[in-house]
Amino acid sequence: MAKKEISYNEAVGEIEQILQQLENEELDIDILTEKVKKVSSLVKLCKKKLHQTEEEVQKILENISDE
Questions:
Q1: What is the pLDDT of residues 31-45, one digit of tens each?
Q2: How far is C-alpha 59 from the geometric centre of its chain's CA atoms?
């Protein structure tokens, strides 16, 4: 079964949750690396989604200008 990609808002929420745990020193050192890797992948996902959205908006604006 294919894994469903999470939404931008879900990714940001998860990043914020992990950062809050880091700030409050709630993370066990044994899972710190795992959480940092997770945040890294979530940031990449967010950047990808932002870039895709920017491209789509630019195309829409170009189409409006051409009309």
A1: 999 999 999 999 999
A2: 23
